[in-house]
Write the structure tokens for this entry.
Amino acid sequence: MLNEIYNDTKEHMKKSIEALKRDFSTLRTGKVTTNVVDHIRVNYYGTPTPINQVANVMAIDATTIAITPWEKRMLASIEKAIYSANIGVNPNNDGDFIKLYFPPMTSEQRKEIVKQAKRMSEKAKIAIRNIRKDSNKTIKELEKEKEITEDEAKKAHNEIQKITDNYIAEVDRLFSTKQADILKV
């Protein structure tokens, strides 16, 4: 019964870590990645569709992304979607593909992106703490219903805290890595 609670806690906390990694992948570092356009949706036959499902998206070099649509008539829709997304660059349409030229980041931009990463990390930590709270609440209910003893409940709370500490440390490690990546020139 308690092992089930531990496993559920770990599973939910893993999902928080995965969500943080997805959030971090949208942040720009010194080198541009195609993840910058992942959240952009294009109107494809009346359906909002991710760009990478209607076009080939490639990072040509550290500051350039090329988007080649599979259907030529999608160029205008993709261009419009990029303008609407306001990702900090204007698309350059040459009739066959779209290029996005990202200027090198200034130190102010880097600091601002680090702040965004910090906010994302804090959000992940809050999610992990909420999971801990729910698990501890479940343990208290089991103790109240006399399904586990007071000592078992105390051990269970300690185990949940150890699990939580490990995942909080993982968030901090991910943030440190991302921060170094962002600040690296």
Notes: The beta strands are 41-44, 47-50, 55-61, 64-69, 91-93, 98-101. The CA atoms of residues 66 and 146 lie 63 Å apart.
